[in-house]
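Below: protein 1.
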Amino acid sequence: MDAQSALLERPALRNDESVSDEAARIIALVRSKGDRAILELSEQLDGAKLDALAVGDKEFAAATDQLDDESIAAIDLAITHVRRFHEQQVPNSISVETAPGVRCERISHAIESVGLYVPAGTAPLPSAAIMLAVPAAIADCPTRIMCTPPRPDGSADPAILAAASRSGVKDVFKIGGAQAIAAMAYGTESVPKVRKIFGPGNAWVTSAKTLVSTDPAGAAIDMPAGPSEVLVIADDDASPNFVAADLLAQAEHGVDSQVMLLTTSKQLVEDVQLEIEGQIHCLSRADIVRQCLENSHIILVESAAVAIEISNRYAPEHLILQISNPRDALPGIRNAGSVFLGAWSPESVGDYCSGTNHVLPTYGYADSYSGLAVDQFLRQMTVQELSKEGLVQLSAAVIKLAGLEGLDAHAAAVKRRLGGPP
């Protein structure tokens, strides 16, 4: 079991303390120096010398002009599918008469201000802009801002800007890393403070999100969403070509990503390794992929049931089931951010345009967190309304329970309404 635990350890967690210390240092700088700290950090960390943090109208217009028609069409298709799936997630209000004269309700309101973080380091992610902005727009959050790292020339990635504007976000700031999280959590001269922060990022972003979420003066967060990961469960029927392609697709996200294969087939292990070596040469990010693979593993297991047990323990961000009758195995899957069933469901479609959200819990947090959805941009509150008759019905129970807890004033609030002695 100890050996298995070592194999399932996320690489980014090994330097957790140093990452947290650096994130805390950056947060403190931004809180004390505001925009000036962000401009200095942008030059130090991103190599970008900025005149202003906000993206202006001219840069938005120029960004769209830089994209060809096919790129705009792909962005619009993704927005359409993500909106179609997420529109069905809006919760209905509830109104229940729990007893005659006693009505209880649950209603939703949009969070008033939200901050969306879109990574753009070694791989800009316009898809993340869509995944964050579309549900925020459906929830109708009044204030929606986005932060994304600047490029060395001081501009923001044009595809991210196009995706943001077409998804309903007009206020974008060229800020990356922990400093972006700090700016949105506490506000600066340019960046408004928000009440909740959303979006994936590297270990420093994830650590900064955790830190600001524990500070009453900071901001709430969606979930721990750090370096990306995938776990593939495959059997003898799986295609080595497809399995290798899925592993490599996730590995190219970054050197701190992790890919795992659990299989019942010794032959598949050999075939997938050969496929990986054959396919990796065709990739533009082959160096990053090779570094990622150093922290990744192929594990031979005795049965699909054992593989699922291990997967539930690992709680992957993405889980791909390339096994016979994958839907039959779905009821046994408890801990995963997003599941992909069968040979024709590559993780790539979930990243872009199937309609599901790709902002998902990592680091094993899929055992207690859900992927991003519309309800996370909403807050719910309950309402109760009683008639006098309804209060009379409940009065004896309220008075008795208040007595059990020694809370006399609770009981008196009922007794006084009914004309009895407190």
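Below: protein 2.
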Amino acid sequence: MFRAITLAFLILSVVLGCASRRERSSSAQFAGPVPNSGRGVISTDPEQQTLARSSEIKHAETPVQPASFQNEDAARATYSISDLENLAFANNPTIAELVATTQKAAGFRTQVALRANPVMGYNGTQIADEGTDQHTIFIQQTIITADKRDLNRRVLNEALRAQLFQLEAQKYRVATDVRIRFYDALAAQQRVDLVREFQAVVNQGLELAEQRKNANEGSRLEVVQAKQQQAEAQLALEQAEATYFAAWRELTAFVGCPELGTGELTGELPTSTEARSWSELAAETIAESPEYEVARAKLAQAQANVQRQNVQAIPNLDVNIASGVDNGTNSGLINVQVGAPIPVFNKNQGNIAAARAEYARASQEVERIENSIKARIAAASRDYDVSRAAVEKYQSQILPYAQEALELAELAYKAGETSFVQVLIARRAFLDSSLQLIAAQVVFAQSQSRLDGYVLSGGLDPIIDDSGDDSLRGLTFSQQ
């Protein structure tokens, strides 16, 4: 009896050993390379990528603040755009969510490729008939055919790749949104400085108007007009400061650190611009965009699922090996049983049709993403070209002319050669031109940020969990 049981275990070990070798071979075959998104080298193993992403986020959960952030005097703290981006990467919940969904996809990919556990049990027959009873110990194993487990892994491997590219895309969304808000706050900060400088000029003008009146060279009207402009300058300063504080609160809330005290933003709005080839940029963006790679990975997943569903109807084998003793003959016995479902009624035709329809849908989604990228580039290019023209014109002509006109008006008024109204007009024109230049620079910087970030935005939009599930495993072992 023991020799028979040992023989049964040896037979089953050979069967399971061959299956294990096929599993390792298929695992290496379907791991596959992950396309490069154009920003550095990406690991060829999605599971290694997942672990690397998780480690990166875990180390960033408790952000180390830059030295400038540790200043006890919040009013003197300085913040660069890179400082704020790092804080956003560490604190943005959507990035942590996508790390979790990537880990889920990796877990599902592992689960769907696992073999079935063997069943071991005891069987006794004719037990009531003493002397003829038979006792056996059996081992039962389901043998999966047609490489279904490897095809399962291939489907979920593409789902994992899609999640990895989704994580990359989300980082660009967060970075773009941080830069847009940074430039809003930086522009508001520069407006405050500009209005303060203008206020100083207006105060000096009021002193001059009062001096001329006291010397009987000016009038009360000039003093009143100077005071009116001083009040307007004070109002403009209060509004500029309110705008700056609101922009600062929005920026710090987005990076996940609303407790940061108001500080000084370091950086410059763009002063030089260059023309761009929009057709070339659109082609480069589509080729390198992680958003586009997400759609392509989902298309590959749909194609792999079609292949998987096509082999579902091929029957698996249920193998049962039993070994024991027959007391009637006082000798050992070995039983072997092999069975398989007959695909007469269920040929998986419904799932095959659904998989083909999903492939058609995924193909259209790739085209939709491509057209969406082109449309967003077109909108960004409009802002880029319009603001680029404005920045160049204000810097090269309008603002220099406004400054020269102000200087000439001030000199002429001091010499008594022009009216005070002309001075007021020149001051207002210079302030308006300076503010218009800042506005154009902001739009240009923000459009440049959108283009550099593959026209991706929405760093706090809800995350859709596309990590998949392990339903293919259940389908593999149930052919009814």
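Residues 152 and 283 are 34 Å apart (CA to CA).
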